[in-house]
Specification:
Order of helices and strands: EEEEEEEEEEEEEEEEEEEEEEEEH
CATH class: Mainly Beta
CATH architecture: Sandwich
Number of strands: 24
Strand content: over 45%
Helix content: under 10%
Shape: globular
Bound molecules: manganese (II) ion
Number of domains: 1
Structural class: mainly beta
Radius of gyration: 19 Å
CATH topology: Jelly Rolls
CATH superfamily: Jelly Rolls
Length: 293
């Protein structure tokens, strides 16, 4: 077995987003990106009960695309572009932040019951990261049934089927609901990771439990999954060629850029726009390197 065959398994870190407990699979010490994928928060399954909010008030982003994917429940997205979109399982919300956007996410008021899903970020390359913000909702995504697995293609191409979702770098993201053993073809130029959302599985014979990420370096052509029943997300892409700087909800290249974005949000100067939401804006402390004004 050479270096490219090895699977690197990392634990997720428990974190709190608002009142929602999440398992952060990316970034982790020693594993900052998988292709352009730079952030992954797996939340739930949890029960939504009245008065116990899982709402995330208006907050800004820049330099990334946010991907919201649900296994259970519903979420309402509102952003400063004026988008208002309900998302349910099997659908994709994709927001491109570019130079700046703000959004709020909440469980719709009528929803009771389970909530389970994942939110991921994709770093935008230099060529597009300063461009205008955008939002896409994909109610229908391509779906392929193969070897006892149902594969839903969120972004990129799998087995000749292509998602229409925007991507600024060569990338893939697909959900696999599977029983039994399956050989998954991989794009050789991509690095990949498997994030188990439900159940557990073996990847190339190594156990991978929910909340863990299995990373595979570029150069592989396939991966063998084996499970009694599991749902996993396979993400991948060409290794990201740029060094990114991530602070709070911002992805940039320099501290100056982050500092300027912080000030714009603090002062509500219009850069990130306004979200039509009853929820309270989320504020943050200044970056530690920021001079006191
Ligand atoms: Mn967000």
């Amino acid at each position: 077995m050479d270096e490219t065959d090895a699977i690197e398994i990392t634990e997720s870190r428990d974190a709190l987003v608002g009142k929602l407990h999440v398992r952060r699979a990316l970034p982790r010490r020693g594993r900052r990106t998988v292709g352009a994928w730079c952030f992954a928060d797996h939340f739930g399954p949890t029960r939504i009960v009245e008065g116990r909010g899982t709402d995330i008030g208006p907050h800004p982003h820049m330099g990334i695309q946010t991907v919201t994917w649900l296994l259970e429940g519903a979420a309402l997205h509102r952003d400063s572009l004026g988008s208002e979109q309900l998302i349910t399982p099997g659908q994709l919300n994709l927001m491109t932040a570019g130079s700046g956007v703000a959004h709020a996410e909440q469980v719709p008021g009528h929803h009771r019951g389970g909530l389970h899903g994942i939110q991921l970020w994709i770093a935008q390359p230099e060529a597009t990261r300063s461009s205008a913000a955008a939002f896409e909702h994909h109610a229908q995504l391509p779906r392929v049934e193969v070897q006892g697995a149902v594969v839903t293609i969120l972004i990129g191409e799998v087995l000749g089927e292509m998602s229409l979702a925007r991507h600024d770098r060569p990338l893939v993201g697909a959900e696999r609901v599977l029983h039994g053993e399956a050989t998954v073809p991989l794009e050789r130029s991509f690095e990949h990771a498997v994030i188990v959302l439900d159940g557990s599985m073996a990847i190339d014979g190594r156990p991978l439990l929910a909340g863990r990420l299995g990373f595979l370096a570029a150069g592989r052509e396939e991966l063998v999954l084996d499970t009694d029943g599991a749902t996993a997300l396979l993400i991948g892409g060409e290794p990201f060629p740029e060094q990114i700087l991530m602070w709070w909800n911002f992805v940039a290249r320099t501290r100056e850029e982050i500092g300027a974005a912080y000030v714009s949000w603090r002062d509500d100067d219009g850069r990130f726009g306004r979200v039509a939401s009853m929820l309270q804006r989320i504020e943050t402390k200044p970056p530690h390197w920021q001079p006191v004004p």
